[in-house]
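Hey,
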Amino acid sequence: MRAVPRPVFAVLFATLLAVGLAACGDDDSTQATGDGSTTTVDDSGGGQYDYGDDTGGDAQAEDGKIVAVDFSLSDITVAPGAEIVLKNNGDQKHTATSDEDGLFDLEADAGSTSDPGTAPEEPGDYTFHCEIHSSMTATLTVEG
């Protein structure tokens, strides 16, 4: 068996190293959110999402928006009667449905934002869930 010459081995090793390092680089991509803004998504398969200043993997509330990511919903705090929407940053259809009948029921396909709904007028905590994925629960807090 003939040995590989050192210069050929060195070039092959350097090429493989460069490819490997490139694969470990920035796995983020920017995606439209459906409301005219964009969000940065980590495409590495880890499920981490960046909402600007927030740095967590779980859903993080945005002003007036309940956020769905993968299989979590964000808690949200709003003023009485405020407009609320469900912003779905996941890849499954989700809902944000009040546990009390008729208060609010928002629905959004993957990568979209629901039609607006209205928060209750009475201050308090209102639990809600995803009708499709019952383990997804969160709380809407009305303060004012």
